[in-house]
Amino acid sequence: MKKEEFKQKTHQVIDELAETISRLEARAGEIADDAKEEYKEQLEKLRELRDSLSAKLDEYDMMADGKWDVVKESAGNFFASVAEAWKENYGKVADAFRKEPPQEN
Fold this sequence. Notes:
single chain
């Protein structure tokens, strides 16, 4: 993976994460009471993931092109682990919406 390709993909994932977080925050009122705590925890994990990815992008962005060749494999591995963590945490948040909301009398 080339440095510019990594930066482009990373920016795209950060943007998608930010959009997903915003949508989930807007729907927080739809969560059943028994799922709200787990929902908040998973949403916080998504925020941490976004922040971690952004920090890593800044770190790699400051790196000289010559050093990029040395770390590009770890950058690719980091990107893959972020994608996996995102899918896992997003799935858990989505499950909270599937639980039955409390019935109003």
